[in-house]
Amino acid sequence: MKETLVRRLKEVPLRDPIMVEGLPGVGHVGKLVADHIVEELKAEKIMEIYSPHFPPQVMVKEDGTVRQVRNEVYAYKGKDGEPDLLILVGDYQSATNEGHYELTGVFLDLAQEMGVKRIYTLGGYGIGQFVDKPTVLGAANDLALVEEMKGLGVVFQENEPGGGIVGVSGLLLGLGRLKEIDAVCLMGVTSGYLVDPKSAQEVLKVLSKALKVSVGMQALADRAKEMEKIISKLQEMEKAQMPYECAGGEEDLRYIG
Amino acid sequence: MKETLVRRLKEVPLRDPIMVEGLPGVGHVGKLVADHIVEELKAEKIMEIYSPHFPPQVMVKEDGTVRQVRNEVYAYKGKDGEPDLLILVGDYQSATNEGHYELTGVFLDLAQEMGVKRIYTLGGYGIGQFVDKPTVLGAANDLALVEEMKGLGVVFQENEPGGGIVGVSGLLLGLGRLKEIDAVCLMGVTSGYLVDPKSAQEVLKVLSKALKVSVGMQALADRAKEMEKIISKLQEMEKAQMPYECAGGEEDLRYIG
Amino acid sequence: MKETLVRRLKEVPLRDPIMVEGLPGVGHVGKLVADHIVEELKAEKIMEIYSPHFPPQVMVKEDGTVRQVRNEVYAYKGKDGEPDLLILVGDYQSATNEGHYELTGVFLDLAQEMGVKRIYTLGGYGIGQFVDKPTVLGAANDLALVEEMKGLGVVFQENEPGGGIVGVSGLLLGLGRLKEIDAVCLMGVTSGYLVDPKSAQEVLKVLSKALKVSVGMQALADRAKEMEKIISKLQEMEKAQMPYECAGGEEDLRYIG
Amino acid sequence: MKETLVRRLKEVPLRDPIMVEGLPGVGHVGKLVADHIVEELKAEKIMEIYSPHFPPQVMVKEDGTVRQVRNEVYAYKGKDGEPDLLILVGDYQSATNEGHYELTGVFLDLAQEMGVKRIYTLGGYGIGQFVDKPTVLGAANDLALVEEMKGLGVVFQENEPGGGIVGVSGLLLGLGRLKEIDAVCLMGVTSGYLVDPKSAQEVLKVLSKALKVSVGMQALADRAKEMEKIISKLQEMEKAQMPYECAGGEEDLRYIG
Question: Is the pLDDT of residue D182 over 80?
């Protein structure tokens, strides 16, 4: 296996579908949202994508069977005027720089083949401290799309994120432009220390309005509440330790969730 | 040499052979078992596999001659109702991520060509402390195979190993599924600090039952006893040092063997 | 996207153009000069170069839109006896060794196609301390070119830089020789700690004389003055701290600018 | 430039030439010997080899011109019964694992094309302390060759070097075997801390006998004497420091030369 392999499981006729990408990244915000949508909308898996650019690994499932790490594309046929959706989820992003380019190329070829005119990429924007008022930061590959997103409450800050957007969520915008596909990245502001379902909720609210698809929020709200409890506990512990060990705590928070 | 090269040494007609993989890994458990089987069954080398994904290195032998690092395939014609075997052994696994995918692809192509319907991959599962009661942990790419292995005493724990299975022992399961080849990974639980022939013995017992091939155990048992002595000595030394240097010892145990 | 992609935006007929390369590097000297020339001469963008060897990233612009990281080629039609120019600028050099070779190959193919007979590559030469009297160090792939540059005040020191010249500014000389294209690298001596517009000014002076193209200096002079102020402030701070923390300061100077 | 490029400068008819490889490595022993032979025998350069697997770099020469880093093949027409030689020298070995395999493949293809039946690869064997009595360690890809070399005073130690031989000096033996080319690696025992012309002298003595080509030694002897002086000085300094800083010195010895 030397090349990325797209395994097509099913033909589902879609009309001008919108693509939504949510692969693992900062705070797992994008992945939480996209996985949640797949589940809530009961979207149907139509493709599996395997690549030598993913880690050489299988995941072990509850029943003792394994699953090759991969990306997956799900299809959703819109009801009552809702648009059709293609949802891109998975275990990993590419483990190499070149792989990000190759895989994004594969995703955009699929998008073009399916008649996709717009892509939403989902991610987190880590700010290094706990977030009180969750917001959604945006960046797009088209000025009209920037304006449209502002209308939905998405925040656009000059030259923010300063370091640019790295990985597939960025490349789908940058390379998408070369193929004339409009694309916007919605980033939930998050500490970056923990899996953040609260930030994911905010992103989902915006995305749901943008797509004009109503998605149940409960599962994500439940996870957010659980995580809130964990954070409170961690913060208490941190306070309790503070006289002795000022700089502590933070290290312990990284990616529990 | 830019591509993986399969050098065929001999044609041996085999009937529905079962493939056994034992390349270097945690505690060298898989390698110990597979090398032992090759020797005990006097299996015949039929292929050498060279690859730019192996380290750029030759090994120096006792007589001053060298040998290019490689993987090898041995064939065993079963006697008295035993199945035929293909045994995959070698000096190294791939040194790169992409190489793991490429080499596993080569191994699976060979398996398909030879009519392999089932693969056993062998490895170790490091738990970071010395193991009192050796057990064999399993994962498979087919639910029926999970049940069958449970019948042989193999332990399947929910989502264990948590980090998945990395390397060729995992990929043969994951990518094997895409080619409709049943595969199971047998992992001897081991400290992970030392080459572990005792853990290898446990894996061999299970494998021998599963294959219905009887394999002499003595050589492995002898090595296990030797290693037991080394460990006892190390543990005594550790105790002796303890008042002075609590965290010692462990560092010294890594991969003596 | 598995290959470097040259996107041609416009055909501009040029006569024996001279190529000028200024990509990011030590002190951003080369980039400062080349970007400045593009702006001052109002050169026209004729190509964009995308590559999987660049970081997998988009830059976010002031208006909230993004831009895929890339290299760009600008064309300038010389006026009143000035030569025509091709100016190569961009966000990044290759992130991999092999990428440097591949991209330099692409640049040289373009140069050959456009009839380029001479290339100026621009860079900085970091000496690890603040520079009092700015000088321009040179290296060329042709002895006559060395002599010509000496006539313009460029300094050639035996075996200097001792570590050779790394990256596209070096490879355009080395691989350019194989295609019979004369090329010279002009390196502004700089601390290497900060973006250095003062060093860039010196390089621009030499380049402008060599090209016989007059380029306004004001914008670069303004930036140099600003940077001078920052450096004075940093040096004062450093002095103030010195009794307490001798080795300090330096760390703080790295790439502010 | 995506592929290794062999630039042929000249056709020199050779009869069954013997190949000698001396690229940079431990103590630069192999490079010292091969460069010395090229100079002493006034061998003629017939090929330059460029590769994206070398560092992306040019070297600056004394006159201010540059030279792309590369490997080179020199030819020597034997006189009075001497064999013809092909001598492989250069600035670097491959910077990547895969590159070692690719370049060795290129070297072996050239060897086969030129009718080479035997290869000598030259290197150093670092033992981590200063060497009193210099010896030459050997490894070969053919048992008869081992015996032949023993007759010339080359030492073969069981399974030594324990870590195998890494890089082109090893691969020419290992992959050479697959092409039925006899090859032996001669390793001068050296501290590994410094460029070691004394060890190179020992290797040259053996090689000269083996090739039945007489090579003047003076230049190498002169360099060895110079280095002896440097080492004596370093050892004195080390002694002088010892009461105060026991573990010192060694760090300072690394690769002066």
Answer: yes
Instruction: Residue B4: name the closest of B101, B112, B119, B118 by CA.
Output: B101
D29 CA to chain B: closest CA distance, Å?
19
Smallest Cα–Cα separation from A49: which of A96, A11, A102?
A102
Which is nearest to C136 in space by CA: C27, C218, C215?
C27
User: What's the mean pLDDT in A73-89?
Assistant: 97
Buried b (16+ CB within 10 A) or exposed e, A221-253: eebbeebeeebeebeeebeeeeeeeeeebeeeb
pLDDT average, residue stretch D82-93? 98
Please state the ipTM of this predicted complex.
0.88
- The DSSP result for A95-111, as a single string, is SSHHHHHHHHHHHHHHH
Residue given tokens 């020597």 in the structure block: D76
Question: What local confidence, expressed as pLDDT, does residue B134 receive?
Answer: 85
Tell me the C-alpha distance between B176 and B34, whole Å.
Answer: 20
The CA distance from D183 to D177, in Å, is: 8
Beta strands in chain A (DSSP E): 5-8, 18-21, 44-50, 57-60, 66-68, 71-76, 85-90, 118-126, 136-140, 165-166, 182-190
Where does residue B214 fall: left (phi above 0), alpha (psi -120 to 50 degrees), or beta otherwise?
A: beta
- Alpha helical stretches, state H, chain C: 29-40, 97-113, 143-150, 168-178, 197-211, 218-241, 250-253
Can you read off the two tokens belonging to residue C244? 């307490």
Contacts of D160 in chain B (CB under 8 A): 60
Between CA D39 and CA D36 the distance in angstroms is: 5
DSSP string across D98-123 = HHHHHHHHHHHHHHHHTT--EEEEEE
Q: What is the CA radius of gyration of chain C?
A: 19
pLDDT at C10: 95
Q: Check if the beta carbon of residue A41 is closer than 8 Å to that of residue A85.
A: yes
In angstroms, the CA A169 to CA A20 distance is 10
Phi and psi angles of residue B68, each rounded to the nearest 5 degrees, phi first = -60, 135
**Residue A235 DSSP label:** H
CA-based diameter of chain A, in Å? 63
Query: Distance between CA atoms of D87 and B10, rounded to whole angstroms?
Result: 37
Cα D195 off chain centre by: 12
Comparing CB atoms, the residue among B105, B146, B170 nearest residue A65 is B146
| pTM to 2 decimal places | 0.90
How far is A135 from D105, CA to CA, in rounded Å?
A: 56
Q: How far apart are CA C228 and CA C224, in angstroms?
A: 6
Is C167–D56 a contact, with Cβ atoms under 8 angstroms apart?
A: yes
The pLDDT, as a whole number, for residue B146 is 97
Amino acid letter at B9? L
Give the residue extent of every domain in chain C. Answer: 5-217
Helices (H), chain B: 29-40, 97-113, 143-150, 168-178, 197-211, 218-241, 250-253
Q: Which residues of C touch D57 (CB under 8 A)?
A: 164-166, 170-171, 174
Give the separation between CA B42 and CA B87, rounded to whole angstroms.
11
Amino acid at site B152: L
Q: Which CATH number fits domain C5-217: 3.40.50.300, 3.40.30.10, 3.40.140.10, 3.40.50.10900?
A: 3.40.50.10900
CB C47 within 8 A of CB C110: yes
Contact in structure between D168 and B61 (CB atoms under 8 Å): no
Task: Residue B25: name the closest of B139, B221, B169 by CA.
Answer: B169
Q: Say which CATH superfamily domain D5-216 falls into.
A: PAC-like subunit (3.40.50.10900)
Question: Nearest Cβ partner of D65 from C100, C141, C162?
Answer: C141
Q: Which two tokens stand for residue A151?
A: 């209308």
Quick check: B69 and D97 CB within 8 A?
no
CA dist., res. B45 & res. D179, Å (int): 20
Q: Which of B68, B95, B96 sits opposite D175 (nearest CB)?
A: B68
CA distance B153 to chain A (A): 14
Q: In angstroms, rounded to a whole number, what is the distance separating the alpha carbons of residues A196 and A188?
A: 9
- Determine the residue type at A125: Y
